[in-house]
Amino acid sequence: MVLTNTANPIVVLLSSGIDSVVYAPGNLFLLTNYCSESIRAGDIIVFRIQGRGLFIFHRVIRVHEKENGYVKFLTKGDFNYVDDRGLYAPGQVWLEKKDVVGKIHSICWHVDHHNGRTPSTGLSCFDSGGILCIKEL
């Protein structure tokens, strides 16, 4: 948590609501949630709804920011016709910074492949600086 400022620095995507091969089920994501890290429309964030345990990966479609620094967000899955207000807690119409688990910093693609006769699984991890690791499990 010290390096990433999030209690959940690594999360796995269970199903895809985002239109991209990068955001495919089974991929791992390394998250950061720094106070100085701004969230803008178009960013994909990971958030949790009060009273629910699942992580949700959706795109920010609207940001409202006040002069005092208070920020609230509206999100939507790329494949959804409407925004996420129906997913939020009863009475909640915006997400706040406290609801955000983090922004995606790095992606670890989950790769299934066959090595000769033995099936195996590998992970390829990338960030903005390039390849972090390629590991056969």
UniProtKB/TrEMBL annotation:
It comes from the Eukaryota. GO terms for cellular component: signal peptidase complex. It is a single-pass type II membrane protein. GO terms for biological process: signal peptide processing. It is found in: Endoplasmic reticulum membrane. GO terms for molecular function: peptidase activity. Catalytic component of the signal peptidase complex (SPC) which catalyzes the cleavage of N-terminal signal sequences from nascent proteins as they are translocated into the lumen of the endoplasmic reticulum. Specifically cleaves N-terminal signal peptides that contain a hydrophobic alpha-helix (h-region) shorter than 18-20 amino acids. PANTHER family: SIGNAL PEPTIDASE COMPLEX CATALYTIC SUBUNIT SEC11. This is Signal peptidase complex catalytic subunit SEC11.
